[in-house]
Specification:
This protein is α+β, with helices and mostly antiparallel strands. The chain contains two helices and twelve strands. The protein has an eight-stranded antiparallel barrel. The N terminus is likely disordered.
Length: 219
């Protein structure tokens, strides 16, 4: 009887693990490290981000579902040398968080929880920040021509992340667009419901991965 019970527990854990992987946010994990010096270009043109046309798509998951939504920038700028992006700084308005896969009531409850101290504590930390540390050329990838690295500050924790992007610089402006990529929320001290915690019931665990996709323009 005990052996059968253990087998059931093993199968339950296996099913939970498979379901968790299936629902995890899409995309390659961002390269994450300690914060680095912010890029400073001696000769640069500064472009203001078009906040109305710039959007950050996010996704998060638990075993039973994946939820999606958006965030907007409060302000930001890109610097270029006329041919490539050399730096930039962006303030993310956490109060603009929306949910796009649930109805108004369900989405409101989800955004309310994500905005609470359990997760992003928006009342205390209304703005997240991303500051470019370097942009390097990427060869042989049809969907991305650069690796963009920058210091991301969520709540009171700053880490450098790096992700693939398609970066374009023209005479009148610049754009940065990415495919899906992920960051690990626990790197920023956000551990509520983490699948890595021993006391979390695994079928109630929330993925540590947060999916992101960015489309940004500046002029």
């Amino acid at each position: 009887m005990m052996k059968t019970f253990k087998n059931y527990l093993f199968l339950f854990a296996l099913v939970a693990l498979v379901a968790s992987c299936k629902n995890a946010p899409k995309g390659e994990a961002a390269a994450t490290s300690d914060a680095a010096p912010v890029a400073k270009a001696e000769t640069a043109k500064t472009l203001n981000v078009n906040t109305a046309n710039t959007l950050i798509n996010w996704s998060g998951s638990k075993i039973s579902a994946t939820h999606t939504g958006t965030l907007k920038l409060k302000s930001g700028n890109l610097t270029t040398d006329g041919t490539k992006v050399t730096g930039g700084s962006f303030d993310i308005d956490m109060s603009t968080m929306t949910c796009t896969d649930l109805d108004a009531e369900g989405g409101g409850k989800l955004v309310g929880h994500l905005s609470s101290p359990d997760f992003f504590d928006v009342a205390k930390f209304p703005t997240a920040k991303f500051e470019i540390t370097k942009v390097t050329a990427l060869e042989g990838n049809p969907d991305a021509n650069c690796m963009v690295y920058g210091n991301l500050t969520l709540k009171d924790v700053t880490k450098q992340i790096g992700f693939k992007a398609n970066v374009k610089v023209g005479a009148t402006g610049a754009s940065v667009s990415t495919g899906d990529f992920t960051i690990d929320r626990t790197d920023f001290g956000i551990k509520y419901g983490s699948e890595s915690l021993a006391d979390v019931v695994k079928d109630k665990a929330i993925s540590d991965k947060v999916g992101l996709k960015i489309n940004l323009s500046a002029s």
